[in-house]
Structures are given as C-alpha cells and as structure tokens.
Amino acid sequence: MGKVAVVCTAAACAAVAVALVVRHRMRSSGKWGRAVAIVKEFEEQCGTPIGKLRQVADAMNVEMHEGLASEGGSKLKMLITYVDNLPSGDEKGVFYALDLGGTNFRTLRVHLGGKEKGVVNLESEKVSIPPHLMTGSSHELFDFVAAKLAKFVSSEPEEFHLPPGRQRELGFTFSFPVRQTSIASGNLIKWTKSFNIEDMVGEDVVGELTKSFDKIGLDMRVAALVNDTVGTVARARFSNQDVVAGVIVGTGTNAAYVESAHAIPKWHGLRPKSRETVINMEWGDFHSSHLPLTEYDQALDAESLNPGEQIFEKIISGMYLGDIVRRVLLKMAEEADFFGDTVPPKLRIPFILRTYHIVVMHHDTSSDLKVVGNKLKDILEINSTSLKMRKIVVQLCDIVATRGARLSAAGIFGILKKIGRDTIKAGEKQKSVVALDGGLFEGYKKFRSSLESTLKELLGDEAAEMIGIEQSNDGSGIGAALLAASHSQYLGVPES
Asked: Which residues form the Hexokinase N-terminal domain (predicted)?
C-alpha cells in the first residue's frame, strides 16, 4: 500500500507541475494579449485616414480666416509680422543677426553677394547667458547682450568697414511671444523657457536693446524683429522666389506664410507698403475636435506647464513624441507586466525617453533590433527584452511619428488651401514651395518621408507636381540677417 501511495503522490506532483506550467503559459499568453490590445487600441486612436486629415486641414483653414479677421478671434494668433519686403536674392553687403531664444544666444555676421554669389561668408559666435540675468532686470540682460555683440563687431574685417555716417544693420530673432507694432518693434507678451524678467513684459524689446547699444556707443540699427519661422521663409526666399510658406518641425513647431494684404480684415484699413505680408500663425496652439487625441495625450497635456494650450504642438513636435511612447509603455508595464513582474522605476520619470531616442530605435535595421534593446537598457535600465518586445517598441515609435508627420502635412495643406495653391487652375504654371526646418524634419528620415508622401496624397498627383518641399537651414540666423538686408534703410543706395 505504501508503495502505491508513493507512486500516486509522484503522479499527482507531476500533474500539478504540468498544471502550473499550463497556467503560467496561459497567464503569460493573457498578459501578452493585453499588451497587444493596448497597442492596437492606441494605433486606432492615432489613426489619420485621408478623410480625417482633410477635416483637420479644413478646420485649420477656418481658424486662419477667423484669426485674420480679429484679434482673439481664433486659437491661432495669426500675428502680423510687418515683413512686407522679403529677400529678392539681389541683397548685397554685410549684415548682422542676433538670435536670442534660450540659455544661449548667437551673434552672426553675414556677407551677401546677390544672386550670383548668394551667402558669401558667414561668421558666428555662441554666448551662454548667466542664469541670474534670466530672472534679473531687462537692462542687465540687454547690456550683457549688447556688450558681447559689440565685441563680435570689433572683430569685423577691415574690408567690411562701412563709410562714415552709415550704420550697421541687424536682424533680431527674439523667440518669445511678441505683439509686433512694426517691422522693427514689438512688445513682449510673456516670457517662456527659463526666463522671468518682470519689468520687460509689455515693453518694446527693440527699444530696450537699442538703449543698451547707446550706452556703449554701438552704432547699430535693428532693421527687423523676427521669429525663427519668419526667418525660415526669408532664408528660403533669398534663393527661391517661389517660396510661399515656412514650417518648423523640431523641438517645437510653428508656421508662417505669405498672405495678401486685402485678406487681413483686422489690419483695420491700414495700408501696408506692399500687397502682401508674412503672417506668423503660431500654429502650435491649433486645436480641433478632428485631431486624433488619445488618453496619453490628454494626460500629458493635463500634467504640462500649459494645460489646454499648444495642443497641436504636443502631438507633432519633438518635445513630446518620446514621452507619449513612454506613457504607452508604462501602461503596458502596469497592466500587462510587459517588462516583467515589476514596473521599471525609470519608466515613471516624465520625459526620460527623448525623441532622439525614438529616432534611433525607429531607424534600427538590425535583424535582432539590438539598438532598441541597448536603448531600453541604457535609458530605462531594462536589462532583458525579447525580440517581439522590441518589435512592439518600434511599432509604438512608428505610430507616434506617423501621426505627427501626417498631421504636419495636413497643416501645410490647410495653408496651401487658404492661399489657393492646393489645386491647379486652368493654364496656371505657378510653382509653390514650402520651406521646412527643424530637427524632426532634418534628422528623422521616416518622419520626413511620411510628411512628404502624405502631402502628395492630399494634393493629388497633378497639384503635387506644382508644390515643392525644400529644407531651409538657420532661418533664425541667416534668415534674420536677410530680413535686415531686405528692410535696410539704404535700399537703392549704391554700395560704397
């Protein structure tokens, strides 16, 4: 009897072991199924079929009209830049640029040689801004900037020295929200980034900079106050007169385009110098019920420094794409044990996964996705991942990047529609070019190709032949100098 009992017990143990293995496999299968379901649901919510993209473009078009009709009439600010004289390509001479928009600023000296020579020479210098100047007083900040600019000017080659009585001219890129009052004046609306200089809010930034010039005897005139998107238009127009718009898709995103003066009702009857001017859309703040938002986007927005604002930017720009992927992975870790029985602590840290990490993982072409595995290990301290897990990560990168690229294309299509360049009119052969800049467009090949193919899909083959996309680098630097040249007080004056 004892032996039989032992045998039965052994059999029972084996049965229990088999049952445990089966249960574990079923449990693992169930968890994997839940992980796949989360990804599938996310993909569906991020969907951008062509019909939805057309709705987004139409909504953008409506907001553009309303923003041009009255101040505050739209989520889109549609700011009048007073840039009514874009570069023609004939500009010659030496012009300066000051690019201030973060913890560093740049000074540039640009030698222009007209249509034949283009940008002959470019010299630049980067300067770090001491942290205390970012929260001090306006005169302290601009005195510091003016002193560094004066030192840069002092290194000017003798061949560039101007004749007596002729001022050097500067294009000033100031990448903070400004309400412009002329081509060379504008009042600061609010500081962003790490700046908080209270006495500057509401004041004319060019006026403050000029005061600092006067203190040290720097004989220089600010000929144009611009932002980097308007500079992108100018940089591209210098070499291509078919440019009608500029778009930046990088850490942030924005668009500017050339608008007919008669299509701007809020100009209140003021007659501009020319028939057209550049409009700074501030399109990052665009919002529409047609945008494919997910629970992850809504959570990111709610936890941001500016909830309810910059919705378009938060789903297409480089600042946010990596964190959207992180949020999906976190849900998979919490609800499906995607990375094991415990949630990797680093996965809970906002913005630990940056968009440049996404680019590298998305572009991984190795058979075992080794780069993806290494990134997960280095950034999130996830030491062991299977190939199918890595494929899921790449899939998430693709979903987020594709949505961003296709929505960017829809925005561009909306601009082309507003200015009547989305279709081919009988007998018309006018080509239109959109200049793009920014790290996503420049460095994220899959993003770029998706944007370009989507725009072609929206336009149709015939219209797409008349629309060009070209990269325009350094609108905030060279573009600003070009706008100083095209708005020079010496236009028409022969070079000495």
From this structure: 39-236
